Amino acid sequence: MPENTGGRPPMYETKEEIEEKIENYFRECEGIPFFDDDGKPWRTDKGHIVYEKPPKPPTVTGLALALGFASRQALLNYQGREEFNDTITRAKTRIEEYAEMRLFDRDGVNGAKFSLINNFKGWRDKPKDETELEALRKLDAILEGIDREAER
User: pTM of the prediction?
Assistant: First the structure.
C-alpha cells in the first residue's frame, strides 16, 4: 500500500506537462482569425484582421486559470516548487514583456502599470520614501559593523 505523505497530490508530475499547457494558453491569447480559401486571414477594408475568436492580453491570472489553478496566488505558490520554478518564471516573464510593451501604447499604459507593479518584482510607482531609505542606510551600517567584527 502506498505511503500517504499528506496533502493534495500535485497537479503536474513533470515540467513538460505544464509547459504544454502554458504554450496552449499563449496560443489562445493570439486569437483565431477567419481564413479565406487561400489560407490567408480575412482583412477589413482598413487592413485589420477579422477574428473568429479575438486576441486577448496574457495575464498572470489568465495563466493561472488556464493551468487549472483556482487563483493567481495558487500559481505563485506552485512557482515555489523547484521543479516548476523556471518554467513558471519564464511564462510570467512573457506576460511581463507584454505589459512592458503596453507602457508605450497610449491605450494600455494604465493597465500595464497596474499589472507590472502588482504582479512582478522590482516595479514601483513611486520612489522609496525617506523612512525606507534611512532604514536601509542603518541596515548597511550594521552589516558593515558585522563584517568588520568577523574579520577580527
Answer: 0.70
